[in-house]
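Researcher: Please generate the 3D structure of the following complex. Treat every line as part of one assembly.
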Amino acid sequence: NAGVTQTPKFQVLKTGQSMTLQCAQDMNHEYMSWYRQDPGMGLRLIHYSVGAGITDQGEVPNGYNVSRSTTEDFPLRLLSAAPSQTSVYFCASSYLGLLDTEAFFGQGTRLTVV
Amino acid sequence: KQEVTQIPAALSVPEGENLVLNCSFTDSAIYNLQWFRQDPGKGLTSLLLIQSSQREQTSGRLNASLDKSSGRSTLYIAASQPGDSATYLCAVLFRSARQLTFGSGTQLTVLP
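Model: Done. Output below.
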């Protein structure tokens, strides 16, 4: 009963380093997305995907890249980490239908950039 | 720009009290609204999903209502317990956007 799995749970990076946050879901959901959660600002959408090979930008995409080569996986890449990217990152998935689309979230990755 | 607002930002109540959390949104054209619970340092757990055609949903001690015309939803928690202490988030899927828009949440503390 895995649902949405994110790795790692915690990460510390130095400014300028790159890394990939992993997200996998086993529910055959077409729609996957990445959010960041910052105090006082709620959850903001970074990137999303409506299916393999299709990605699009959300509200705060700068500094992040994504790809969707399979239905199950949706990795988020930080190309050159900056202190402003210190945040908690959440991956979510759901069916693509617009009505009964309950969203499921991973446990989050807490990233600190020093 | 569509917005979702949750007031108050924090709420503290004694155990056993019935309580209501509020969520308001700026556009009545929605597909659905979802309530989540978030424990400190954890992910979001879905509590209730209300479709645009529904007026309410119930799960155990939780009841969520939806009034699209006034742009409001409430989450009613009956007989609150210390284990209910968490942050409760409201998220709306607006018809003009494919992505969920979140409120900032209400941090609930239930005192023993």
